[in-house]
Design brief:
The protein is of the alpha+beta class and 547 residues long. Helix content is 35%, strand content 10%. It is built from 15 helices and 16 strands. A hairpin with a 2-residue loop joins strand 8 and strand 9.
């Protein structure tokens, strides 16, 4: 009865409203950023289809030639880049070519005004513990039991990582730090919610927890957060397992490849310093110094886990935030040393990388360190950013959609990281050479992609956005988790290697290709699952855009 009442209340406040893509037809198709553009943004729509085209396109009173055929790419034999950067608004517009028109979008200084609230709304929906969003039930109040010692430890709080119910501290720690860096009080309030759990991860000088719960929560029955009946050895719905970082491979059957504790300890140290808790930050940082290497999430039922490959960026971030908080010179010296070891982002320019291998994909510590050091170190930091950006640019210029990031699981994270790094590089150096490509990466997220779908659930309102996400609130409560950024497209090779529940009709079938596949279907857990880290990364990007 409690479950029925809770679900009924959820339905009352958040019924699913699907924004369906139009019937594909025979083409051509126009792809735009459906949220819109700031007045000074480069503005390029894509006209794509099966046949060669010529003529003019219109955006309001603006008219121009569609330009040269950019050639075949992805699912399309012919592609044209429609540049309407001269349109500065304000207003609502569509791109038109003959009888074909794009979805409506905004141009103006407030084009993104409503997006941050939606992103934060998703984070509140994901809350776990005794401080839920208003109107939501409390959940997982028994977190947790140390998997190795059997001790009860208070790890209530934080956020559920994605569509399931477990909590990854790899992503939670990053989310708190990134939220704290957003120049907005609502974002910082959400950071305080997550920070309460991050502090509790380190109850003893030699202990830090990397995961709460595990993939045992994937077993039936599927329920909402508050009615989790997963059994971690303490009965259905009992306390969940707390997995400490041990510095070595862990997992009862399938092992991760952990080598230390510094990745989680350094990042958590940065978070605590940002939140003003210097004492806890010092202790976490010391734990990272004493236990170099990476701590990965723990697989139980299946071999999949979040596998970071480096801790240098995390220790750099911890050191620089501790220096900002204490002004103690040894932290600044350590931050510079860690920065040179971290270098540039090795994933940039690759066709693929491992799952969360280079998380969080952009090294925010280089940016945080830049204004604290002399010109020689500043030049090195900028060079580390520029090297990765150049490799992405080389790839992006080879295709009409200007996408240069890999189509791996959580590909939206990569696209946002590239755009964020480009904006930070410009802020650090004044060099705007990557601004256009950063804009195109942002636009990819909001619908200027082969599928014509925004990868942010329900955003923009009334647009063509992810509307059938792989999320229990959608599946069970028929409630759309608006504001959640989904994983995004993957290569056909990755898609074909996965086993899904049966799909209905694939309305996006004409736009699938060997390059990438995306399904707006709740059965697709690889492309259409909302994730907290990507959502927060997008929030930070939008905040940084005009700084």
């Amino acid at each position: 009865m409690r479950t029925v009442v809770a679900v009924a209340s959820l339905l009352a406040v958040g019924l699913v409203v699907r924004a369906q893509p139009p019937e594909p037809g025979a083409g051509p198709w126009i792809r735009v950023n459906q949220v819109g553009y700031l007045p000074g943004d480069p503005k390029v729509a894509l006209l794509s289809g099966p046949e060669p085209l010529s003529g003019t396109f219109q955006v309001g009173d603006f008219t121009a030639e569609i330009g040269p055929d950019q050639g075949a790419w992805g699912p399309f034999a012919h592609n044209y880049r429609l540049d309407f950067s001269a349109v500065r608004g304000p207003g609502r517009f569509r791109v038109r070519f003959g009888a074909v028109e794009s979805p409506e979008f905004a141009v103006g200084p407030d084009a993104y005004a409503r997006v941050p609230d939606a992103l934060l709304g998703f984070m509140r929906l994901q809350r776990c513990g005794d401080d839920p969003a208003p109107g939501e039930p409390k959940c997982h109040l028994q977190d947790a039991i140390d998997e190795f010692t059997g001790e009860k430890v208070d790890l209530v709080g934080g956020w559920h990582d994605a569509a399931d119910r477990l909590k990854h501290m790899i992503t939670t720690s990053y989310c708190v730090g990134a939220l704290r860096l957003v120049d907005d009080e609502a974002a910082r309030a959400e950071a305080r919610h997550g920070a309460a759990l991050v502090k509790k991860l380190h109850p003893k000088p030699d202990v830090i927890y990397v995961q709460i719960g595990d993939d045992r929560d994937h077993r039936p029955p599927q329920t909402l957060w508050h009615d989790d009946q997963s059994d971690y050895g303490h009965g259905p719905g009992g306390p969940r397992s707390a997995w400490p970082a041990t510095g070595k491979p862990e997992g009862p059957r399938y092992k991760n490849a952990s080598t230390g504790k510094a990745s989680i300890a350094g990042r958590c140290a940065a978070v605590m310093a940002l939140m003003g808790d210097v004492e806890t930050a010092r202790s976490m940082y010391k734990l990272g110094e004493e236990n170099p290497g990476v701590a990965m999430s723990v697989p139980v039922l299946a071999p999949h886990y979040y596998g970071e490959s480096t801790a240098w960026d995390d220790m750099e971030w911890g050191a620089v935030e501790l220096y900002r908080a204490t002004k103690e010179p040894e932290f600044l010296a350590a931050a510079v040393a860690f920065a040179d070891k971290a270098g540039d982002n090795a994933w940039m320019g690759r066709d693929a990388h491992g799952h969360y291998e280079f998380f969080p994909y952009v090294n925010l510590a280089h940016w945080r360190l830049h204004d604290l050091v002399g010109a020689d170190v500043q030049a090195r930091l900028a060079g580390y950013y520029r090297a990765g950006l150049e490799r992405i640019r080389e790839r992006a210029l080879e295709n009409p959609y200007r996408v240069g990031t890999p189509m791996v699981w959580c590909s939206t994270n990569d696209a946002i990281a590239f755009a964020t790094q480009a904006r930070l590089y410009e802020a650090m150096t004044g060099d705007a050479r990557f601004r256009g490509l950063a804009t195109e990466a942002r636009d990819w997220i909001f619908g200027r992609n082969p599928w014509g779908v925004s990868f942010v659930v329900g955003v923009p309102e009334g647009g063509v956005a992810s509307s059938r996400p792989h999320h229990m609130f959608y599946r069970i409560a028929h409630r759309l988790p608006v504001g959640g950024l989904v994983d995004g497209p993957v290569t056909k090779e990755i898609n074909d290697s996965l086993k899904f529940s049966p799909f209905g009709e694939d309305r996006l079938a004409p736009f699938q290709s060997d390059f990438a596949v995306f399904h707006d279907d709740d059965a697709d857990f690889s492309t259409n699952e909302p994730i907290i880290d990507g959502t927060v990364s997008l929030l930070l990007l939008l905040d940084l855009w005009d700084r």
